[in-house]
Amino acid sequence: MNKIILAVILLAALGGALYYYLQQNKTPDTSSTAFQQTIVGEWKIDSVAATGSVSTAGLLAMALDTNFSKYHFQFKEDGSITQFLGDSIVPVKRSYEWKDSAHLVFKEGETLSEIQPVQVLSFSKEQFSIMSTDSSVLYFKKLNR
Questions:
Q1: Do residues 72 and 42 lie in contact, with contact meaning Cβ atoms separated by under 8 Å?
Q2: What 8-state DSSP symbol labels residue 125?
Q3: Tens digits of residue pLDDT in 11-45
Q4: At residue 91, what are phi and psi to the nearest 5 degrees?
Q5: Neighbouring residues of 19: CB distance < 8 A, sequence distance ≥ 6
Q6: Residues of the chain with pLDDT under 50
Q7: How far apart, in Å, are the Cα atoms of 72 and each of 7, 8, 13, 22, 139?
Q8: pLDDT at site 30
Q9: Greatest CA span in the chain, whole angstroms?
């Protein structure tokens, strides 16, 4: 009788351990597809910040473009980006690709050969911020149209 009780207790413990192990291996879906679907839509550059030893050339170029704060970007599911100024399309070929949940790669130019990796600092359905390799931070805000 004691052996049967001991066997039942061991079997229950083994089942509990197996259940715990299987639950620990489940991870939430953080695939690049989930992030890509979240970024789809129209975004506007809300602000720009400089941190650390920023290359002033990049910030100077942004400051000289008087329309910089008026641009908005449409991120599409296929990885392409369309840049708008008001109702006009800016003729710059761009695309994006998620490397993982913390890194994006922007490609630009006719052959999409100019590559700019960026680190995603924060991301939500309403806003996100990225840091370029020169440590400048761009804050984007979702446009609700």
A1: yes
A2: S
A3: 777 777 767 777 776 554 444 455 557 889 999 98
A4: -80, 60
A5: none
A6: 28-32
A7: 67, 65, 58, 45, 12
A8: 47
A9: 87
How far apart are alpha carbons 60 and 98 in whole angstroms?
28
Do 42 and 128 form a contact (C-beta atoms < 8 A)? no
What pLDDT sits at residue 55?
Answer: 54
The owner of tokens 């920023």 is: 54
What's at 97, amino acid-wise? Answer: E
Q: Do residues 4 and 11 make contact, with C-beta atoms less than 8 angstroms apart?
A: no
Phi, psi of 124 (to 5 degrees): -145, 180
CA distances from 134 to 23, 52, 102, 117, 141 (A): 41, 9, 17, 11, 21
- Residue appearing with tokens 């052996």: 3
CATH class of 32-142: mainly beta
Q: Is 16 helix (H, G, I), strand (E, B) or coil?
A: helix
Strands (E), 17-68: 41-50
* Burial label, 125 (beta-carbon count in 10 A; 0-12, 13-18, 19+): exposed
The amino acid occupying position 36 is Q
3-state SS class at 126: coil
3-class DSSP state of 118: strand
